[in-house]
Design goal:
380 residues; alpha/beta; elongated; binds adenosine-5'-triphosphate; binds magnesium ion; iron; YlxH/NBP35; metal-binding
Length: 380
């Protein structure tokens, strides 16, 4: 059973801190609740400074939550501050969703339409390339169906720790190769299929965005799940995305889905600029015949699509075994200096950055979409 914030609030309604008179919820003692899988973090502020009062409050919270959810791992961050009873609760960061995230300059969404075309591979290698170019980079794995970034960055067993930022518990992204990473993969059991309902998924994503200590970033890359469903809508609702990169193979069926992906971003009331299209698996080159190119999925399909829809063609990535191997062992191929694959990702990343500079010069910041009906994407 998944634990929700309202369940925890209900539990906290039953607890009163010594000397406060009203329950923790009624008395605005609870300043923040974060839930990541089984981990429940509760920030509480009480006015009674005695050690006994602090211990009693902490223990009661832990006991009451575990009594209801036996698997819950509870962390109470308790502070003491004599405050006026009528003081307003500290603002919930989820309430400011949609506003620019302080410290994050550019948010780039990597999307496709069709599954398995290489979004995650492009995200990982673009992140590595941007980092090598000297930028501060974060990656958010928003693939609620099959998160993979934690594997591609060789941190599958890592767990983000919680840190205290200005009195609030925040999740600290895991870091490897100089890149900060948060993935739903950190909070799910790899052997269990996780079925996320839309609202649950968007809540989890909101937490990884707003309840995380990303610090200063030049780029936050978001690896989207395949398709154009409600997860995508949740993300454009929650975040001012600076631009989108669409990945496709040259195959007709992938191109048709890529076109839908582009159309989603370009809808009048979503209006996220598409920075360009990356063609992945453009041709196959066997390791023993490096000069040979086999156009397994067709030739130049994504290039033609980019021309058709008047968006930039950012470059092509060949289908080579080393790219797949590098992804599987968690050492993105762009880390291998001087290889043709590294050069390909450098080219693509530079083209993306050039389009981004144009975009930031020509267009106002992306507004966040307020979608009031599932079918309509109606108001802004
Ligand atoms: N250019 C390439 N050459 C060889 N293998 C590749 C290439 N691009 C991607 N792959 C491999 O293809 C598989 C699918 O790639 P990836 O996971 O990046 O796609 P995706 O679009 O993110 O998939 P999903 O829709 O499931 O999220 C992975 O095993 C990856 O290593
Ligand atoms: Mg993926």
């Amino acid at each position: 059973m998944s634990i929700t914030k309202s369940d925890i609030k209900a539990v906290l309604e039953t607890i009163t801190a010594p000397g406060e008179g009203k329950s923790l919820m009624e008395n605005n003692n609870v300043t923040n609740i974060n839930i990541f899988g089984d981990e429940v973090m509760v920030d509480v502020n009480i006015s009674n400074p005695t050690l006994q009062a602090k211990k009693k409050t902490e223990t009661e919270i832990e006991k009451a939550i575990v009594a209801k959810y036996s698997t819950a791992k509870v962390k109470v961050n308790l502070t003491v501050e004599a405050k006026k009873k009528e003081e307003a609760p500290k603002s919930n960061p989820n309430l400011i969703k949609g506003e620019k995230i302080p410290g994050i300059q550019n948010i780039i969404a990597i999307a496709s339409g069709k599954g398995g075309v290489g979004k995650s591979t492009v995200t990982a290698n673009m992140a590595v390339t941007l980092q090598k170019m000297g930028f501060k980079v974060g990656v958010l794995d928003a693939d609620v169906y099959g998160p993979s970034m934690h594997i591609m960055f060789d941190v599958a067993k890592a767990k983000p720790i919680s840190v205290n930022v200005d009195g609030r518990s925040k999740m600290k992204p895991v870091e490897n190769y100089g890149i900060k990473l948060l993935s739903l993969g950190f909070f799910t059991n790899p052997n269990e299929a996780v079925i996320w309902r839309g609202p649950m998924a968007s809540k989890a994503l909101n937490q990884m965005i707003f309840d995380a200590d990303w610090g200063e970033l030049d780029f936050l890359l978001i690896d989207l799940p395949p398709g154009t469903g409600d997860i995508h809508l949740s993300i454009v609702q929650a975040l001012p995305i600076t631009g989108a990169v669409v990945v496709s193979t040259p195959q007709n069926i992938a191109l048709a889905d890529a076109k839908k992906g582009v159309a989603m971003f370009q809808q009048k009331n979503i209006n996220v600029p598409v920075l360009g299209i990356v063609e992945n698996m453009s041709y196959f080159t066997p390791a023993e015949l490096p000069e040979n190119k086999y156009y397994i999925f067709g030739e130049n399909g994504a290039k033609h699509l980019a021309e058709d829809i008047e968006t930039a063609f950012l470059g092509e990535v060949p289908l080579v075994q080393s790219i797949r191997e590098a992804g599987d062992v968690g050492h993105p191929v762009a880390l291998q200096e001087g290889t043709p694959q590294e050069v390909a990702f450098k080219e693509i990343t530079k083209n993306m950055a050039a389009e981004l500079v144009k975009r930031n010069k020509d267009l106002p910041p992306t507004e966040v979409v307020k979608i009031t009906t599932m079918s309509g994407c109606s108001t802004k």
